[in-house]
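Hi, here's the filled form for the chain we discussed.

Project: internal
Contact: R.S.
Residues: 96
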Amino acid sequence: MNFVSAAGRGNDRDNHYSQDPEANKQRKQKELWTERGKGDPIIVFEAYNEEEEALFVAREAKRLQREASLHLGDIAVMYRTNAQSRAIEERCDTDP
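And the returned structure, exactly as it came back:
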């Protein structure tokens, strides 16, 4: 699954993750799209702690720079809570 299709699932009226499924039926159905094609699949990684997670993110970003010739600005990192950003930012500031 790529980013656009995953984001679209989050907007789905039949999204089973909602705390109030009835409220979803009131929402206008949205279809997300992009002119840039499907894009690469999302990488999912389950870490033991925030340090392990941050290390994975930093190493993966470096790998994508090296192997896919991407710039850091081409890479998106999604996390559940804003508190996760600090460990990731700190790890990215060092050389993994």
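Let me know if anything looks off before we file it.
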